[in-house]
């Protein structure tokens, strides 16, 4: 029993994943690989200790999910190191310069520091817990020393290795402090996220989101500081890499919308203070005033504040909104036709599946798999023929989702209650009444591999990682397993061997069809079948075993292994 609980299926798959990453890492990235190894050991230890002890975290996590610390801590650093492996091949072929490679190394250490800071935060909570008992030897004094040794060793390695690879003299200290700042910010942010949104995520899911947000915000802050002449010369050297207009627009809009609730809450407090003074006692008037403040402040943020930042960090020459219109109408026939096609597919799918969800007894988890198929039909042609426009469209869709979720949570008149009722038709056990995240995970699962493949990419299937793993593999596994599955992977789980086999087989068949199609459109095929088989198998097994939000993790695992 102890051995089964110490090494469950999810941990075994993650160990296989990390082993493949470390095996493929060249010697030039030895320090990064060693840091990932130590981070994996520390995360695995904390994951086992938390799941097999009487310790209770001081916040509510998603019911029915394991802690997921091991998977959540290693996923993003593994993605970054796989991307480093890819850029190292490009650097040896003189396809990219030292500046791009150095920028990605800083991003890797910032990601590792973020995950590492969260592990320290969890470790401190466990040490201070009065209910700190466990039936396994991991809670012995030797186990505590081992855990702290892994954490300290990884921290020292990050500091020493980063200092050794820096070529900026005294400025290396400032750059090192900048990286370590990400760890502190991640620890504070995950505490805020888990307290603000109780029962919405496991620790591993919150860790993945937190480290990603800290990295994204840090990159935005870094490129902003790099444009300012002053003492932060290292940031100018590292964050001064060339950026595309589309990535800058997406980054500005997404982060602006994420920060918008703070600004809106401040304005709302002022409004409520005025309303409580007796001048606006009617509830309807309060709701209309709240709605007016919301839409006015949102328009001000999107039209004035965010574009001002975009023009500061990148020379657009025209207003970014005008740049978007110019970009779309530079190929009007193709891009407008694609927009009309998307709108038609979305409208037909929503009308069809929304009626089914209200009048049918079909399980919601199965019903939502049809949206995965819809994602394939929408995104696959665009990835092949209009990849840049799809990048922008993903950003627009994410901005729309964020706006609608803010409207739903705050119940902004007149759409707040309508959006809430509509979204409830598609929620399942992984969503909560406070926050609906499944549609975000599906969109980002498809978008992130495409966004990360911008620039140099010598693995033609890498941009399709989300579409293949979620749209085809995950969907076929659920459908076949639900209808024909008999042999279950575990006595308590619902996932079946037949479903997993169908998911793996369907992705392999799709890849065998997609690769010749890509070759006919001019792609140079350099995809290794060994890495493809490993990626398909590992992602399929993770879907079968994990209790985490698979839409968030599977595409990143699949993408990382495809890049090797």
From TrEMBL:
Swiss-Prot/TrEMBL keywords: Endoplasmic reticulum, Kinase, Membrane, Transferase, Transmembrane, Transmembrane helix
Entry keyword annotation includes Kinase: yes
Any one Gene Ontology cellular component term annotated for this protein: endoplasmic reticulum membrane
InterPro entries to which the protein is assigned, alphabetical: Polypren_kinase
Entry's transmembrane regions: 20-46, 67-86, 106-125, 146-169, 175-194, 206-228, 248-271, 292-312, 332-350, 370-386, 392-413, 434-454, 460-480, 501-525, 545-562
Record keyword tRNA processing present: no
Molecular function terms from GO: dolichol kinase activity
Biological process terms in GO annotation: dolichyl monophosphate biosynthetic process
Top-rank EC class of the record's enzyme: transferase
UniProt subcellular location: Endoplasmic reticulum membrane
Protein's membrane topology: Multi-pass membrane protein
Enzyme Commission code: 2.7.1.108
PANTHER family: DOLICHOL KINASE, TRANSMEMBRANE PROTEIN 15-RELATED
Family of this protein: Belongs to the polyprenol kinase family.
Protein name, as recorded: dolichol kinase
Protein's organism: Vitis rotundifolia (Muscadine grape)
């Amino acid at each position: 029993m102890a051995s089964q609980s110490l090494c469950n299926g999810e941990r075994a798959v993650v160990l296989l994943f990390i082993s493949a990453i470390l095996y493929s890492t060249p010697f030039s990235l030895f320090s990064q690989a060693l840091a990932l190894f130590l981070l994996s050991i520390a995360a695995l230890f904390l994951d086992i200790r938390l799941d097999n002890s009487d310790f209770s975290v001081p916040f509510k996590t998603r019911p029915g999910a394991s802690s997921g610390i091991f998977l959540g801590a290693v996923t993003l650093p593994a993605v970054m190191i796989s991307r480093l492996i890819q850029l190292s091949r490009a650097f040896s072929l003189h396809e990219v310069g030292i500046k791009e490679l150095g920028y990605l190394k800083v991003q890797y250490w910032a990601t590792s520091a973020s995950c590492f800071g969260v592990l320290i935060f969890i470790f401190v909570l466990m040490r201070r817990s009065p209910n700190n008992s466990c039936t396994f030897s991991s809670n012995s004094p030797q186990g505590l020393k081992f855990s702290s040794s892994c954490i300290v060793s990884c921290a020292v390695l990050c500091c020493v290795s980063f200092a050794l690879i820096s070529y900026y003299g005294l400025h290396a200290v400032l750059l090192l402090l900048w990286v370590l700042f990400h760890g502190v910010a991640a620890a504070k942010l995950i505490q805020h996220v888990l307290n603000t949104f109780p029962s919405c995520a496991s620790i591993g899911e919150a860790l993945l989101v937190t480290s990603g947000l800290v990295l994204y915000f840090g990159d935005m802050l870094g490129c902003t500081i790099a444009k300012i002449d002053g003492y932060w010369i290292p940031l100018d050297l590292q964050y001064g890499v060339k950026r595309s207009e589309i990535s800058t627009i997406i980054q500005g809009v997404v982060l602006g919308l994420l920060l918008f609730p703070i600004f809106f809450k401040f304005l709302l407090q002022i409004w409520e203070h005025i309303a409580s003074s007796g001048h606006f006692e009617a509830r309807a008037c309060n709701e209309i005033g709240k709605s007016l403040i919301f839409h006015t402040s949102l328009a001000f943020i999107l039209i004035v504040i965010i574009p001002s930042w975009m023009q500061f960090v990148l020379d657009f020459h025209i207003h970014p909104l005008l740049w978007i219109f110019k970009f779309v109408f530079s190929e009007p026939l193709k891009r407008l036709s694609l927009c009309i096609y998307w709108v038609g597919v979305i409208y037909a799918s929503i009308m069809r599946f929304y009626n089914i969800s209200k009048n049918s007894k079909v399980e919601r988890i199965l019903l939502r798999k049809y949206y995965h198929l819809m994602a394939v039909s929408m995104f696959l042609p665009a990835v092949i023929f209009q990849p840049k426009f799809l990048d922008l469209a993903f950003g627009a869709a994410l901005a729309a989702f964020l706006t609608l979720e803010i409207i739903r949570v705050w119940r902004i008149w007149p759409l707040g209650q309508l959006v809430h009722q509509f979204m409830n038709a598609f929620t399942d056990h992984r969503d909560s009444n406070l926050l609906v995240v499944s549609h975000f995970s599906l969109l980002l699962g498809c978008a992130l591999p495409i966004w990360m493949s911008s620039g140099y990419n010598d693995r033609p299937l890498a941009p399709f990682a989300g579409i293949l793993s979620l749209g085809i593999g995950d969907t076929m596994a659920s459908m076949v397993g639900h209808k024909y599955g008999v042999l279950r992977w575990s006595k308590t789980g619902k996932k079946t061997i037949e479903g997993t086999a169908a998911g793996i087989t369907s992705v392999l068949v799709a890849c065998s069809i997609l690769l010749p199609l890509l070759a006919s459109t001019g792609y140079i095929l350099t995809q290794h079948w060994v890495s493809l088989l490993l990626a398909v198998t590992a992602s399929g097994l993770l879907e079968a075993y994990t209790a985490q939000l698979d839409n968030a993790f599977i595409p990143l695992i699949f993408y990382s292994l495809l890049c090797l």
